[in-house]
Amino acid sequence: MAELNTVARPYTKAAFEYALDKGALDQWSDMLTTASAVAQDELMVRVLGNPALTSEQKAEALMSVCEEQFDDAGKNYVSLLAENQRLPLLPEISAQFEQLKANQQQSVEIDVTTAFDLDEQQQQKLAQALGTKLGREVNLTSKVDKSILGGVVVRTDDLVIDGSVRARLAKLAEAMNS
Fold it and tell me: Distance between CA 97 and CA 10 in Å, rounded?
């Protein structure tokens, strides 16, 4: 069976190219985020998985909840997904769309874990340094994890920079045991 990301990719690409062409990336991002959240709702999962319902009925059920956020093109997109039995892919489509949008806009979401809270100035300085290193605009999300003891752990899609004291101690222990 094909993986979800592989099956979702052509639908994501079509939505992204349409939104880019119409200059509506943010609008489509909002629509897909809303549809994704609705599609993940426990009750909606049961509705979308009900084999007794037609694809039109499933699309109508989804749209009845979030119709106000959708333009005609968005409604057509949801109908197309329903016809092809792809409504459960909405969370994956939304995630892929956000990734394409970030690449287009030269921005990246970065999660930073520190042992202590960073003040606003420290967050800005770190975001600026990472932005220079990555050549992109950085949107920083910070969280605290006392177990790293000190330093910082930076995570993004395909990059992890572990500058924590815990990681350094683990390397030292490994070197001493070798």
Answer: 11
